[in-house]
Each structure stands twice: as structure tokens, then as C-alpha cells.
Amino acid sequence: MLSRTASDLYWMSRYLERAENLARMLDVSYSLSLMPQDGRGDGLDELAMPLLITGTLDQYLERHGQMHAERMLHFFALDADNPASIYCCLQAARSNAHAVRGRITADMWENINATWLEMRGIAAEGLGRYGISRFCEWVKERSHLFRGATFGTIMRGEAYRFIRLGTFIERADNTLRLLDARYEMLGEEADTVSDTSARGYYQWSALLRALSSFEAFTEIYRGSPRTYKIAELLLLRPEVPRSLRSCMEELNLMLSGLPGDNGRPAQRLAAELDARLRYTSIDEVLGEGLHVWLTDFILLVRQLGSAIHTSYLEVV
User: Fold this and answer.
1) Which residues contact 188 (CB under 8 A, 6 or more apart)?
2) Domain residues of the chain, as ranges?
3) Can you give the pTM of this predicted structure?
4) Of 53, 95, 221, 248, which alpha carbon lies 20 to 30 A from 282's?
């Protein structure tokens, strides 16, 4: 497969996964901002959380000067001038899909094209008329439909593998960043018995719902969400679809199935990361310090993304 084609397939799925992850992030922050803040702010800190996680807070402040709920929501969701907005992610996904129209199925193309056309209509009306929660649910639903069309209609060849690579490298990064952000926001409470407080309960529950893992948590564990349980679930449990280990297993599987010797650096790194998670216990993670461990692994995921790009996506 040509590097350009592989790149378009990879980034098509990566941008679509990113749009879904941004919607999950926004929905949780918006919901938490409406709750009583217990003297910890007026809810704007929660709304600013997606901007902090995506590194776009400075860009927002440069353009708007001050925190304003409505402007922050528009900037993150529908701003065509913000490359990190949901709007721009869906636009980029559709553009990449158009470039490889002959390598994806009709169901896939019709889904992603319809998503973009509907997004343009939502942007024209504005979030005030559509509603934040309804908009975020719509983004997640469209992403689910695209993955379903992909899984159900495309041949299990190289195109399928590059699409899956884009999905899971983006998902792994998002899980790490969301867990780190919520852990940091709880501060000292996260490492004490007070993370069973109301604030700790709602923060951890919001994180689990953002990653569609609340039902998995209640099935596997008993009692209230706590740092130990949350970290183990989202980092090391292979049966949880959005856990880091699940993502790494999929990345290792997809890379190992690609032909040729050019991809050996990426394949080796993916295998190493998969093995590290397979044989690491949550006590070792927490012993190192959760924030330190997460920060280190975010860099490793970034290195894996760079290795994939160098091995397969650079135009020779």
C-alpha cells in the first residue's frame, strides 16, 4: 500500500476517534460544571478542563481574553478556527476519507460524509439550539456507526489494519490523559480515604462514564470508585475496551500483521509496551506514583505513534 493511502486511512480513523473522545471529555466537564462546587470555583474550572487536556487553553485566552462558559463551549465544539475542535476533527476525517474513497466501502463513506453534512448544519444553528449533551451524544453515536460500518463491511487487509491503528493509538492517548487529568484535579484527596467523599465519587464516576466503563467497574469491583480500582481498570484490565492494555494488545496485533521489514521498530515497541502492561501490577504503578507513571506512558504512546509514522506513513 502507498504511504499516502496508509496515512489517509490512519488519520481518517484517528480524527474520528479524537472527535468522539473530545465529545466524551466535553460532556463530562459540562455535567460536572453544573453540580455544586463546594467552594472550589464556579464551574468554569471544569469547563476549562478539556482546554487544558488538549493544550488549547492559551489559544482560547489569546482570542477571548477571559473565561466565559458559552464561548469556551463553542471554541471546543464548533470553532472552525480551532484545529482541536470537534468540528475541525470531523472535517479532517471526512477530507481523509474522500482522499481514499476507493479504499473504503460505500457504507463507510456514506456514514462519514453524512456526519460531516449534519455537523455543518449543527454549526450553523449553534449549540444553544442543539444542546451540549445532545450534541456530544450525537458525536459518539456517529463514531459508533462508522466503526460498526467499518467492522462489518471492509476486508481484513492492510486498509483495515491502518484504520484500527489510528483508532487505538488515539484511544490509548486519550485514556491516559483523562485519567491523569481527573487524578490531578482531585489533588491530595486522590491518595487518601477521602476519595470516597461525594466529590471523589462524582469525579471518578464521571471519568468512568466518559470512557464507557462504569458498567464494567460495577461488575468487576464492589464499593465506591477509588484510585486503586480506577487505575487498575483503566490501565491493566484487558477486557475493558477503552483500557490502556486493551488498546496496546490491539496495536500489537495490527502491527504484527503488516508485511515487510520497514515496520520492525514500531512492531518491537508495540510488543514491548504490550508485554510491560501484561506483566505490571497496579501496586507497581502506584508505587512509582500514578502521575509519574501516566506521564511516562503518554510519552511512550507518542513514541509509538512517531514510529508508526516513520515506518509506514512517510512518503518516500
Assistant:
1) none
2) 1-154, 156-316
3) 0.92
4) 53
